[in-house]
Amino acid sequence: MPDFCAAYGCANHRCLETRKRGITFHRFPKDGEGRRRWEVAIRRDGFAASARTLLCSEHFRSEDFDRTGQIVRLRDGVVPTIFNLPAHLQRSETRRSTSTSRRAEDNLPNSMDLIPDGSAEERSRLKEQRKQQATEHSYALPGSPEALKAKLEAALARVRKLEREKSNAFRREKRAKNNMQALLEELKEKNLINEELKDKLERYSDLPVHLLSKQGVEYTKAQRDFALTLHLHGPKAYHYLRDTLHIHLPHPSSLQRWLSSLDARPGLNKMMLDMLERRRQEDEDKYGCVTLMLDAMSIKKHVQHDPQTQTMLGYVDMGDRLNETDLATEALVFMVVGLQGYWKAPIAYYLTKSLTPETQKVLVVHAIEELHHRQIRVVCVTMDGHASNVSMCTQLGCNLKADPCEPLKTHFPHPVTHGKVFVMMDACHMLKLTRNMLEAYSPIRSATGRISWNYIVQLNNVQKKSGLHAANRVTDKHVNFANQKMKVSLAAQTLSNSVAVALRTLQDLDYAEFRDSEATSEFIKMLCLPVCIEFIRCSVV
Which parts of the sequence are annotated with region: Disordered (predicted)? Predict the structure, then answer.
């Protein structure tokens, strides 16, 4: 059975002919309110639409349709308005009959006195023009529905034009930012990346951003390298691009999956060393001289299966691929830091349990030799002041426990070139050790007098009692630091120049508790300047 249009006097039905004419058919809305509005609009007495009742497209305006897809659809909330109804069903046109409108019409002929000459037709035309000007203000509605419809269509056309202009401006702005260089500049302005990271990512400045927005497309090597570098050095910037700007960067779990395929077993990382060699060939001044840093950190005993290598991880591993049975308790990490430029790179790590100074010496010599083979010169080795590190330096050729009256030997011969390789203890760790030593072994006798931790305790007590601080930061947490021994800021603020000045000031004010504090203030003043300078340098690197 063919489907006919339900409108009064409309004979259109679904067939090949109406399809060629571009006529489409649309069912009544399913919701009750929308269906009722359509039923009222067609003005048929006692009419009730069924599930198969249709209206053809000739009863809707052109702007009621959504033709963006393959199927022509009606926009939400539209109502049919075009019908060929009999005369008794036509809505009569009402004209305004207010006293103001009548007064305006009566006054129109008087204005014709200003035109002494002219034909009757011209005077009639001017009268009609004046009438329209008097009634059609920007806030007044036209007198006829046709004029009202024309005015509405003009306004809608203006709105559509403005929307197109806005959309085009947005596309132009998006195209201007559609390269990686613009994104890097934006991240730098928002302080999400520093100048060092921006320099690292400059090599990807020509990478088109729109390629990252294609779902289901395999990432290229350049895109992978960019994502890995940005996530490693600037995770906040990575999440800003991915979550705020909605750039289709890989999910962090994808990055972890990519990294799991790399060879990251304990020992020297050949891939990192080869990368440093390539960088040295590009910039000899920046990558030719380095400092070798080593540090050991405690790790939790844990055994885990690696599905990539089908091995068990968590045992002692020195990079020699020997099967050990002892669980690792420490990780010894080697890192090189550039003397010029702000860069650093880990080159090796070892899982250990109780590493002897002899074994540690072999690892350090091996790392220096591997760097030398790539024409990278190690001029300094930096570490903390642990006893095993001091013993290792002694075996390398240093003398850090000599007679205090004799100069220390703070260098050892290079294993290949026999040049000097200097040893520098980590300033932050040595500052904490000095603070701990002063607290544990106080009082200490020196050539200038007695050095005592008790003066710093008394300084804190006096400041608490008076409610004033003598331009220093000493508080209870600086004096009772047992639970925060690893916090460098507490040690730096305790052994600072401001504390030395405060002790000297209280001594000059004849405080009984600080009568013999001159040696302590001199000791702190001697420490603070070189240590703070080194601390700032290490923090920047």
Answer: 89-144
